[in-house]
Amino acid sequence: MDKVYRFDPAKITEKYNIKEYFNEYSKLIDQLEHDEVITDENKSKKLDEIYKIKNINYFDEENDESNDAENNTTNQYEYNLGLPQGLPNIPAIQKLKLLTEKYAKEEKKKSLFKQPIYVPINNTEIIEGEKSIPGKDILIEIRIFNPFVADSRHGPPSKRKISLSRVISILGCQTLADLRDKISCISDLSVSYESSNDPSAAQHLLSNKNLYKSGFFYIENTFYNDMRDKNNHDNSAVIREWAEAKNFGQFSVEKMEETKIESLNVRFGYPWVYQHQGTCEHLVVFADARLINPDDHLAIKNYPRVDRISCIRNSSCLLCADKPVYWITIDSDRVPHNPCYFCKKCFKSFNYIDGKKIGNFKAYRFPCDPDIIEAIENKSRVKIELMDQS
């Protein structure tokens, strides 16, 4: 990858063995515990000094007020996008206010789309079972990017747009297989089965993730294959043969289910590859690592977990234009669109009477995460109930 892609070396660390690095770090911490600088007595003295310093009034009241006014002005224009106070109440100013409000709403929508969604875990936290040890166990943050097109027909590497999919936190004692199980991709969720005659049967069909389980991580000249299923294939074999013919060097092969995250030798900030479904490739970046803190979620069953995900634009039903797409129909003789996208409700009400199919069409499940669809539908249901109550 170094020969193909050029990266800013300032954003990439040297190669480290995660386990060895934090073992050395833990030794330094153990030595500091006996240092008089951080004894309990000195801690309290230091806190008293800081408290006194915090209460010293370095500035007079005039300066404080001017600073507050300056900060308020900055916040007003940066976040509220409002107009200056004291403008005359004339039609031109009123129109300008309306345009400003409209622009502010549009900018807010844009900013919300770009911002990541932080996934709350308070309701799903597990407190039972084996616990990780604060100051000993390692927590690694890994960034998973959306599928990466490696075809040269899509332009040179520097011109291709790469977007973040999600950020996953995983313990060093867990394996690459645990990491893989936490990665969600639309190519895994597809169900390639025509279900127009019996849509209810589609819920019990296996998705691509359960049918085609082979996959690998490529990290530092090593292919880590998923061999948990006896029918899995080594998808890296053809790549290694090609690389050997091109004199790109030798590559080693390991099993991801036997490889702990903390045993890896990695460069933080450098993009590696996760490949599944034969040709679907994601860039994977080790972004950060630290020791577990006492105020972290200590139960090992809480990990790996998705910390945040990037916003995506969901496709909407072409009939109601409100609910997310759940079904796709093709070759239908009753709709002008081919393909046509339906939500659950519109699909059944438009294409079936008393459970019997109307007209000719083929139906396929839309490749989407059913948990996300359920969350969106529940949110819409609550909104409608609140509107009815008001």
Q: How are the SSEs placed, and which strands pair?
A:
Blueprint lengths: L14 E3 H15 L7 H15 L6 H20 L10 H24 L2 E2 L19 E8 L18 E8 L4 H7 L3 H4 L18 H4 L3 E5 L2 E4 L11 H9 L6 E4 L9 E3 L3 E6 L3 E12 L13 E5 L17 E4 L9 E3 L1 H8 E2 L2 E2 L4 E4 L4 H20 L1
Parallel strand pairs: 6-7
Antiparallel strand pairs: 1-8, 2-11, 3-4, 3-10, 4-11, 5-6, 5-9, 9-10, 12-13, 12-16, 14-15
Structural summary, described in words:
This protein is α+β, with helices and mostly antiparallel strands and 390 residues long. The protein folds into 3 domains: 9-21 and 117-193 and 201-309, Structural Genomics Hypothetical 15.5 Kd Protein In mrcA-pckA Intergenic Region, Chain A; 61-114, no CATH class; 327-389, no CATH class. It has helices spanning 18-32, 40-54, 61-80, 91-114, 176-182, 186-189, 208-211, 237-245, 344-351, 370-389, and strands spanning 15-17, 117-118, 138-145, 164-171, 215-219, 222-225, 252-255, 265-267, 271-276, 280-291, 305-309, 327-330, 340-342, 352-353, 356-357, 362-365. The strands form 4 sheets. Strands 2-11-4-3-10-9-5-6-7 form a 9-stranded mixed beta sheet. The chain has a 3-stranded antiparallel beta sheet with strand order 13-12-16. Strands 1-8 form a two-stranded antiparallel sheet. α8 links the parallel β6 (222-225) and β7. The radius of gyration is 28 Å and the shape is globular. Mean pLDDT is 76; it is low at 56-81.
